[in-house]
């Protein structure tokens, strides 16, 4: 009897363990699009476009991927208000946009994609973020690493159209002085 009871007990315990183990919850992520996907989606449902211009060799780009683009608030706000694009500034694929063909230009050890060069006005520093409005007009170019708080400040500045009434520098300063994102530009209008 003891020989049968022990395996049955183990079997019951294992079944109980698996019965009450919940499946791992999927962590939310930013819904990244290709350049072409973001442009097409924006035609159907206009939204602003967020472009993370990066390179494979950029250390701070990798830190932003790990620390900033995994932040719950950043993910939620980004997915709700933007079409997010990860754009490799050294990608070789030719893209057509707004009647222009953008290609990779080989120069020395590293080249650059003409679209990255154009979006950044030739100021090739990585990471850089470019924000476009619903008409694909550039709102803001923001070079350098951003932690989640700094990224949220930029996202709200753009999504809530504060750029129409003030500069990002003034907006950020008012936040530092204790204003909330929705009141940061109220008295400056």
Short recap of the structure:
This protein has 189 residues and is an alpha/beta fold.
Descriptors for this entry?
alpha/beta; Glutaredoxin; 9 strands; 40% helix
Strand content bin: 15-25%
Total strand segments:
9
Radius of gyration: 23 Å
Please identify, by name, the CATH architecture of the domain at 26-147: 3-Layer(aba) Sandwich
Question: Spans of 5+ residues with little confidence (pLDDT < 50)?
Answer: none
Instruction: Give the termini distance in whole angstroms.
Output: 85 Å
The largest sheet, given as strand count, sense and whether it forms a barrel, is: 5 strands, mixed
The order of strands across the largest sheet is 1-3-2-8-9
Content-based structural category: alpha/beta
The CATH topology annotation of the domain at 26-147 reads as Glutaredoxin
CATH class of the domain at 26-147, please?
Alpha Beta
> Taking all residues together, what is the mean pLDDT?
88
Overall 3D shape: globular
Q: Determine the CATH superfamily of the domain at 26-147.
A: Glutaredoxin
Helix tally equals 7
Share of helix, binned: 40-55%
Order of helices and strands: HEHEHHEEEEEHEEHH
